[in-house]
Automatic annotation (TrEMBL):
Residues 1-25 form the signal peptide. Residues 340-615 form the Protein kinase domain. The lineage of its organism: Eukaryota, Viridiplantae, Streptophyta, Embryophyta, Tracheophyta. It is found in: Membrane. GO terms for cellular component: membrane. Gene3D superfamilies: Phosphorylase Kinase, domain 1 (3.30.200.20), Ribonuclease Inhibitor (3.80.10.10), Transferase(Phosphotransferase) domain 1 (1.10.510.10). This is Protein kinase domain-containing protein. Coiled coil: none annotated. The chain crosses the membrane at residues 247-273. It holds the Pfam family PK_Tyr_Ser-Thr. It comes from Eutrema salsugineum (Saltwater cress).
Length: 622
């Protein structure tokens, strides 16, 4: 017995050491591969510290002890990529060498990169053919080879890349036809090549600009028959009668099917419209036992129309108890009055639409009409009691709520300056100049205090939906956090893109948000505040990089001040040091692992230090 357990223990240790050896030797081979790369490409030297781990090298990112990302965009590299370099980074998932001056072929050993997802080689001088093995890499999602000197045909095995979403091949020297593509691409561009032939039907939905600068024909460009008559195209045998017969048979079938489909869709839309109408009409009569006075549609609120609509007449006799009040200091009103007030759509958020409701006597409130409430009435009311009991200078006050089977309304204090998101990303000029450093630092601090307050209530309370459109601003540009604590009562079906760009990597179910996930979202918010870039910004997404990683990649290779919103740095340079301190706080909040993130209380303390030392006005005190 004893010897047996001894044996198994030693076997265990043996395997353990083997594993250790494997891990270290793999990182060692990654290091060697990077050194091969460094020794082959010329230009601005890669200042990598050979005595440190490759994971600390500029442009290199590791995960679980292996190199998973290599990003050296715009680094002035030239020469050709060696075999035995990048191709030996077998755990690589992202490769970005865009906008360098690299030339020569795409190395043949890139076929080893079976985990590669994102390949960005645009803006170089790579030549030779596009290797067909790129499309057999099982995980590949984005391929960008635009603006190179690639020639030959587009490989005909594009369809092997079943996960491929982006294929950019514009501005090369590619020839021949575009192969039939059956996978669903989201982004596609082959403009400015020497391609000819007809555009496959599956690609006809892309804009003309994606095909221009070739000798292509067919939708979305000119029909092929027209080009066949043009003098440029080869004479060739004209399409035979048999062909056109076949085509017309197919066309007839297509037209019949299309007609049936259109008819069905129309019927469906009609059905939906009728139902919706019926539902809207039902709202008042079901909930309010009062004679229906006005034939107009129920209320100003449910009508998603803008301001100048005459206030809809609602039913009289609505009972006050329908609205449950938490605060009365904003003035007295009842559901009836609320429905009579003139409404203006403020926005369609992810939990529902918001309206501004103005009463005749001057009171203005914001009304949120919740969508996709999934919990029963009892749980809903309990939740709202908790939210209604919260009170903090940087939280938007919840004044009242209304619950019925068909309608769930929350009444909040109205914030005249709108949301931070609108101010940061809206029309230039409109209030954006107000967002100087002091204001932004103040907003960061106010939001941090509010979230800190939520977290201090008990360890399970979190905001769950922190993003710039939920940070509203008071007249004096103080942050007022809204939409707090609603995640647990809203359907998670609307979750996946709900907090796109703000969601912590570990969060898979948006209804189960932890405080550490809030810290992550708050970190993204800080980065957004400082860079002026929206976390869902197209340009960031195209590269598959989120805002935190974008900031990281820029601060790695350039001065941190390169990431700041130009609007922010234009007028002030002396506050720069504090901006960098705040940037670092934001970056620490967006740490990959929840345990590495600071607590919200800690974050608040750090931001307080920053804003005290920059002498920014500190209007809100606890
Ligand atoms: C790259 O991998 C190949 C095959 O595994 C190996 O023979 C070669 O030595 C490696 N090169 C480097 C620089 O590690
Ligand atoms: C290189 O890394 C080693 C070990 O991490 C460190 O001691 C040394 O200071 C670094 N050298 C430079 C120039 O950064
Ligand atoms: C592009 O490749 C062709 C050969 O295929 C070569 O003659 C030409 O010089 C290359 N152009 C550039 C800009 O590298
Ligand atoms: C495309 O161009 C090649 C020559 O570059 C020619 O041989 C071929 O017939 C052309 N194909 C079509 C469909 O025009
Ligand atoms: C395709 O690339 C060209 C540049 O060659 C650009 O002008 C065009 O806007 C792009 N079109 C699309 C749809 O991406």
């Amino acid at each position: 017995m004893k010897s047996k357990s001894k044996l198994s223990l030693s076997v265990f240790f043996f395997i353990f050491f083997l594993y250790l050896a494997a891990v270290t030797s793999d990182l060692e081979s990654d290091r060697q591969a990077l050194v091969v790369l460094r020794n082959s490409v010329r230009g601005r030297p890669l200042l990598w510290n050979m005595s440190a781990s490759p994971c600390t090298w500029h442009g290199v990112h590791c995960d679980a002890g292996r190199v998973t990302e290599l990003r050296l965009p715009g680094s002035g590299l030239f020469g050709s990529l060696p075999v035995g370099g990048i191709g030996n980074l077998t755990e690589l998932q992202t490769l970005s060498l865009r906008f360098n001056s690299l030339s020569g072929p795409i190395p043949s050993d890139f076929s080893n990169l079976v985990l590669l997802r994102y390949l960005y080689l645009q803006g170089n001088s790579f030549s030779g053919e596009i290797p067909s093995f790129l499309f057999t890499l099982p995980n590949i999602i984005r391929i960008n080879l635009g603006e190179n000197n690639l020639s030959g045909p587009i490989p005909d095995n594009v369809n092997s890349a079943t996960r491929l979403a982006t294929l950019y091949l514009e501005r090369n020297q590619l020839t021949g036809p575009i192969p039939e593509i059956t996978i669903t691409l989201q982004q596609f561009n082959v403009s400015s090549n020497q391609l000819n032939g007809s555009i496959p039907d599956s690609l006809s939905g892309f804009p003309q600009a994606a095909f221009q600068g070739n000798s292509l024909c067919g939708k979305p460009l000119n029909p092929c028959d027209a080009t066949a008559e043009s003098p440029n195209s080869p004479p060739g045998p004209s399409p035979g009668k048999k062909d056109s017969d076949k085509l017309s048979a197919g066309a007839i079938a297509g037209i019949v099917i299309a007609c049936v489909v259109v008819l069905l869709v129309l019927l469906f839309i009609l059905f939906c419209l009728c139902r919706k109408r019926k539902k809207e009409e039902n709202v008042p009569s079901r909930n309010i036992e009062a004679p229906v006075v006005a034939p107009t549609s129920a209320a100003a609120i449910p009508r998603e129309t803008a301001g100048n609509v005459p206030p809809a007449k609602a039913e009289s006799g609505a009972v006050n108890k329908d609205l449950t009040f938490f605060v009365k200091s904003f003035g007295e009103f009842d559901l009836d009055g609320l429905l009579k007030a003139s409404a203006e759509v403020l926005g369609k958020g992810t939990v529902g639409s918001s309206y501004k409701a103005s009463f005749d006597h001057g009171l203005v409130v914001a009304v949120k009409r919740l969508r996709d409430v999934v919990v029963p009435e009892k749980d809903f009311r309990e939740r709202l009691q908790v939210l209604g009991s919260m009170s903090h200078a940087n939280l938007v006050t919840l004044i009242a709520y209304y619950f019925s089977r068909d309608e769930k309304l929350l009444v909040f204090e109205y914030m005249s300056r709108g949301s931070l998101s609108a101010l940061l990303h809206g029309n230039k000029g409109s209030g954006r100049t107000q967002l100087n450093w002091e204001t932004r630092a103040g907003i960061a601090l106010g939001a941090a205090r509010a979230i800190s307050y939520l977290h201090s209530r008990d360890s399970t309370t979190s905001h769950g939906n922190i993003k710039s459109s939920n940070i509203l601003l008071s007249d004096s540009y103080e942050a007022k956090v809204s939409d707090y604590g609603l995640a647990p009562i809203i359907s998670s079906t609307s979750a996946p893109n709900r907090i796109d760009g703000y969601r912590a990597p570990e969060v898979t179910d948006a209804r189960k948000i932890s405080q550490k996930a809030d810290v992550y979202s708050f970190g993204v918010l800080i980065l957004e505040l400082l860079t002026g870039k929206s976390p869902t910004h197209q340009q960031l997404n195209e590269e598959g990089v989120d805002l935190p990683r974008w900031v990281q990649s820029i601060t790695d290779q350039q001065s941190p001040s390169d990431v700041f919103d130009p609007e922010l740095t234009r007028y002030q340079s002396e506050g720069n040091e504090n901006m960098i301190r705040l940037l670092k706080i934001g970056m620490s909040c967006t740490a990959q692992y929840p345990d590495s993130r600071p607590s919200m209380a800690e974050v608040t303390r750090l931001i307080e230090e920053v804003s005290h030392s920059s002498g920014s006005p500190n209007p809100v005190s606890d």
